[in-house]
Amino acid sequence: MGTRKKVHAFVRVKPTDDFAHEMIKYGDDNKSIDIHLKKDIRRGVVNNQQTDWSFKLDGVLHNASQDLVYETVAKDVVAQALDGYNGNLVN
């Protein structure tokens, strides 16, 4: 990530045996994620419920180990913090 002055956004999808394959799709570039929910039919005929979201990111870490997450996301921020720069990681 270097010392660029912009916000970086990553998504980590933790490993699970019960992954929602029908709801979450990853872009081929490994930098986008699409979420799709089925319409709630209990809301009736007129249903303006949003069912699709698409996010562009700096990276998608699917089934990534904690070590890979640290190397990709936190290593530079931690090193810069030790040099006196401000940094923020949100979990």
TrEMBL record:
It comes from Suricata suricatta (Meerkat). Residues 6-91 form the Kinesin motor domain. GO terms for biological process: microtubule-based movement. Gene3D superfamilies: Kinesin motor domain. The keyword Transmembrane does not apply. Belongs to the TRAFAC class myosin-kinesin ATPase superfamily. Kinesin family. This is Kinesin family member 9. GO terms for molecular function: ATP binding; microtubule binding; microtubule motor activity. InterPro entries: Kinesin_motor_dom (IPR001752), Kinesin_motor_dom_sf (IPR036961), P-loop_NTPase (IPR027417). Keywords: ATP-binding, Nucleotide-binding. The keyword GTP-binding does not apply. Coiled coil: none annotated.
